[in-house]
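Team,

Forwarding the record for the chain on the shared tracking sheet. I've put the sequence and predicted structure together so nobody has to dig through attachments.
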Amino acid sequence: IAYVRDIFRKFDQDDSDRLAAHEVKSALSYFNVYVSDVQVMKIISSFLRDIGLESPEDEKTAEVNSTHFCMLLLGIDKYLVQSNSRTLRAYLQSMPASERWDTIARVFVPVFVIVQQIVMQLMVSTY
């Protein structure tokens, strides 16, 4: 718990003793849990409702204190399964940056090679 408290302080950028959604997202990525901005807002709001607190009407303003952050970390798997935002953008944002670029390269490099071959064939045939 002391370790989680230290991590909480590390990511509490404004020293408000509360983590906003973007701070929670950064803290979760420290634990190798990657979620999109929208997902983290929904996770915080769902978590607050689950523990009997009111969640804000605007999910962008959702915050957690250190105790709630610790509780959220312990049960984060429950909220990752519930997250149903599976658009391509959300999927890519939920990945670490290196994996995201690797996935993009695996898709687009073969396409660029094929386009290059087609252009070369067209150029050779017109020469």
